[in-house]
Amino acid sequence: MRRIHLTTVIARTLAAATVLTVTAACGAQTDKASGTTADQKPAAQAPAAAPAADTANDHQPETAGMADAAVAASHAATTAARPQPKVLMAAGSSGARVKELQARLAQVGWFDDTPTGTYGSVTTTAVKGFQGKRGLPATGSADTATWQRLAQMTTKPTPQELQGKAVNKPKTKLDKRCMTGRVLCISKTTRTLNWVVNGKVQSSMDVRFGAQYTPTREGVFKVFLKSRNHVSSIYHTPMPYAMFFSGGQAVHYSSDFAKRGYAGASHGCVNVRDKAKLAKLFDQVKVNDKVVVYW
Question: Would you tell me the crossing angle of helices 144-153 and 96-107 to the nearest 10 degrees?
Fold first, then answer.
């Protein structure tokens, strides 16, 4: 009986030692996770052996690594071989194609002057803005990628458009949130404000938005204040026919927009350049009417 008891004690002692070894290994993993270096760990604390089922997987990282390296090398070779977009027009260019570029940019609201056929600073700014909104490198030069994207969004300019007498702007796709009730439906894509009542467009007008560091907020709002002859308390500039919808941001007439077009920007407000149209809209819009600003 004493032998059996002694054997049991020995077995229990070995089992306890095993538990201590595993706990020490787990502790080492925790230390590793917290930033302890291998030099700080006792040499006797060897990591516990991995389960047999995982042993076969020990060889997979090497194989996977070789495969990943091959894929990466192939991707790099493909990227290197892929031709970069060719610059078709840039600052200093001139001719009929530049005039077409300007007329097409006008269709999507990025060019506000009469097409001249001369690629100057206004055209460079317009191209750069168009590129930035489409995720293209904003170089200001019209390359093949930029021209292709612009061509997809526009139509061949008419003689009237090339002369600056008309602009064939694409029809604005109304956001679904604009389809019920009374809504100032404002599209950043086409830079258009549509006054919509029960899903039907009552009037439309060109708008411009805030600059990079003072962007016009997007979302669903309500007109909470109307001020016919408002003057900005921050910038001390006139804001006629102001309809506030989000903090200090409002829809209002801008003489600067009327004069300079898209060469300028607001401090976050939605600028309108057609004073007569906005005056009429101001009289129709009521406090609590919905405002939707969207891409």
Answer: 50
In a domain, 72, yes or no: no
The 10s digit of each residue's pLDDT in 223-280 is 999 999 999 999 999 999 999 999 999 999 999 999 888 778 899 999 999 999 999 9
Question: What is the distance between the alpha carbons of residues 129 and 146, in angstroms, rounded to a whole number?
Answer: 11
Residue numbers of the domain that contains 11: 1-35
- Report CA 109 to chain centroid distance, whole Å: 18
Say how many CA atoms lie within 13 Å of 23 toward its Cβ.
Answer: 6
Residue 254 domain flag: yes
Tokens of 232: 């900005």
Same domain, 263 and 241: yes
Q: Which residues contact 188 (CB under 8 A, 6 or more apart)?
A: 209, 216, 218, 293, 294, 295
> Scanning the structure block, which residue is given the tokens 């690629």?
119
Looking at the domain assignment, is residue 43 inside a domain?
Answer: no
Q: How many domains does the chain have?
A: 3
3-state secondary structure of 275: helix
Residues 288 and 195 in one domain: yes
pLDDT digits (tens, 9 = 90+) for 135-188: 999 999 999 999 999 999 999 999 999 998 888 877 778 999 999 999 999 999
- Rounded Cα distance between 123 and 177, Å, is 34
